[in-house]
Amino acid sequence: MEFEMKPVPADAKRGWTITADGVIIRPRKLTLESRFGVWTYGVRPEGYDSIVIGEAAGGGAATLPYSYAPDGRLLVGLVMENRPNMGDEPTPCLMGGFVKLGETHAQAQTRFGVEEGGMNTGSAKELQGFPANFNRAYCVADAKADEGLHVFAVEIDHGVLDSVANFSWKLKPTAHWMLPGAKNPDALRFFTWRMAVRETADALARSAIAQLLADLPEVH
Q: For the CA atoms of the chain, what is the radius of gyration?
């Protein structure tokens, strides 16, 4: 997606201050690049200065495992992660992240299933609907051009889930979805979808749950 950021006028009254290695500067235009994408500061097309993020491969990929409790309630799987920028306690988050250059969204979601959930998500199917924009204010991603977060879902048989504390479930170590020697096999937790929405501060997780609900014929 083409998105032009222009330099901030030299006489602009507003502007961001950047501190780099202890040096304070007031840039007119700034670019910060990494393998994940490009961060650019400048004047947006709307006429005000801001920072925007363009992802290297045009978006990300995520997977939402789900299951049905014996009483018919929909369960969704999120990974418990330590995210200091979201608080001191582990928080339920959507399993996923940035797509690497040369990698498909399907390949990326399978990789994140292994890295974050310790499970095989190769059979996951992409949910219908536009890809999600990570942040509508700062992320450059045109959903109509297939840019943004692609969400996949995979149904798990409730028979391979064990009940744990706080009204949640986890995969049994013998479940065929669980990979031998998983780095963090206890990270993945299943919650009723209503509890997941209430308990997570991860906006992407909430978005993925809504997309899953729209795909399923009946939800309890």
A: 20
